[in-house]
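Troubleshooting entry. The earlier prediction with manganese (II) ion gave an output that would not parse, so I re-checked the input for stray whitespace and re-submitted. Clean input:
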Amino acid sequence: MQRTARLGTPSDLETVTVVAVIARGDDDAFRVAEAVPARVGDVEIPTSVSTAWATRQGLTSSVGSSTILRSIGGTDVVLVSGGSESLNDLDEWRRIGAAVHKAAGDQNVALLLALDDVTEPARVAQALVEGALLASYRYRDDRDDASELVVIPVGALPTVEFHDALARGVDTGEVVANAVNWAKRLIDTPAGDLTPKELAKRAVQRIEHLPHVSVTSWAESKIEDERLGGLLGVSQGSAQPPRLVYATYDPSPEANLPHVVLVGKGVTFDSGGLSLKSGEGMMTMKTDMTGAAVVLSVLSAVAELQLTVKVTAIAPMTENLPSHRAVKPGDVLTIRNGMTIEVLNTDAEGRLILADGLSLAAELEPDAIVDVATLTGAQAVALGDEIGALYASDDDLAEKFLLASAASGEPLCRLPLFDNYESHIESDVADMKNIGKAGRAGSISAALLLRRFTNSLPWVHLDIAGPGRADAARGYQTKGATAFTARTIVEYIANLSQDA
Ligand code: BES
Ligand code: MN
Ligand code: ZN
């Protein structure tokens, strides 16, 4: 972790060498809020700069653009654009946080936050900190020593409630960003280093010490005893044994809290198996355990935030490799719930292990089941690299997720569980086959297969094959792993916790 965050006071300005302020612009000038003092210590902060000059320096109406006023031997001042209108989109606050981090590099930085700009203190502080800390992730830099972001409110003395809300927001932002960055580090780790066994070990290490959490890692013999035929079928081609991590957070077992079960696809490397991918196609397939990393990071964040919801995370983990022992096209696997699947393409492996995971989830009869998977190339064809597909068996649940998605800046688009396409997965020899109609609605037919294992419970399926990786950094999003939907799911659970 490269950066930490805390709420501070003007006296903290002595500990930083970079001060950031937000400037709003029109055709004329970029102005700093009146509440920001014109001078702190020996640092002068301009009240306004001309738009012509600002534009030449890269400070534009685009929120999060910035320029640095360098000082010799003193404190640098960063002007970050807050655009031209008032900020109410939380994603703009995240971009501002990222810009502050980037301008400061390795240095401690203080952001002078004019309170007039802040209508929702907890959410704004959370978004700012998320943006800065998410942007600070570097796979090749896991030093423990961190630089600080100090958020310093300025302006009229805030009420105690307002101040507490800011402090809570900063802490929440830090918990969420740390959880997401933990997931991103796992996802970016080469598959040669992150086998199913190693992934399970690291998950248990992160989760086991958290309050009200119990976690177990199922070894192969347990997976056999529990009859997880999909997971066993996929893993049989690999020399690496499978794992399944089963974790529960229940802060108050007597209270009968709302219960959400999360299921995440944990394919640590997807070669396609005997239906082998192309060389190009498997270059990024260490990413195929994103769903597992996401659900486990969500559980850890929910526990750290002590939300009042019961959460179970189920993460089946395996490699998908070809070998003399590998599952063959035409083989039939029997899933945990007794249904059979004809494997016609061994590269459609995600749905096989999720079928087992969803069967386990349904046995718990929770209030909602959520699965996350880098499931189909067809999802990326339909929606590209920045939008995930959401499928839901329940309109109310879909609505809650779309709200959480909008607040998190992780775009989701609802696609239909179109009943007529059930015919695409009919099999002559089993209850279903694991592929649909070639080149036709491949993300939907995968979702329809998964639905058969949910026992008609309220269920959301997130197919994130496209947005699971970023091919370039963008705002607070770093290149590579994204852990897409982790923040949306935390937001959804936090909202449930408030309702409870
Ligand atoms: N892990 C892949 C999906 C994927 C593709 C994720 C590209 C990220 C980027 C999945 O296991 C897969 O191979 N799906 C097949 C299914 C097909 C054989 C029915 C696909 O989409 O090609
Ligand atoms: Mn595959
Ligand atoms: Zn896969």
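This one parsed fine. The chain has a mean pLDDT of 96.
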